[in-house]
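Letters spell out the chain; the tokens describe the backbone. To illustrate:

===
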Amino acid sequence: MYRFVDAEFAPRQEGDTLVVPVFEYVPVTEMRLMLKEEIHIISTLVEEETVHKAELQRQDVIVERRVGATKQWNTEVASEPGARAKRVSS
């Protein structure tokens, strides 16, 4: 590149590429700012699928009620969503 410039300038974006200018002061009869090179940085998007193992918590719910004329205890155990096991005790 090696081109004389009047002042420094900031990095710029050209599409997906970040262009970073590199400056150097060089001695001539007078000191002048020269653009030494530009670094082109290209950004890319990467998608990746992964499988993660995780521990789950489990809860059991027991509901006890007195039902009927005999007032027996009716116990319902629900350990999984939608699953019911009934147990009747006296």
About this structure: The CA atoms of residues 2 and 83 lie 77 Å apart. The radius of gyration is 38 Å. Residues 60-90 form one domain.
